[in-house]
Hints:
Elements (H helix, E strand, L loop, with lengths): L7 E2 L4 E2 L1 E6 L5 E7 L7 H14 L2
Antiparallel strand pairs: 1-2, 3-4
Amino acid sequence: xxxxxxxxxxxxxxxxxxxxxxxxxxxxxxxxxxxxxxxxxxxxxxxxxxxxxxxxx
Length: 57
């Protein structure tokens, strides 16, 4: 999956840091790729999740 979404770092043998929110139909509704030292902003992710939930309600 990491290769499919472009977060696999083959030269290092690791994945980057990313968050994907999948909607009820199985499609990516929100995706954000983060630099490895960056901790995702939980408020931003929670807001995105709320938007995705509201769009499918």
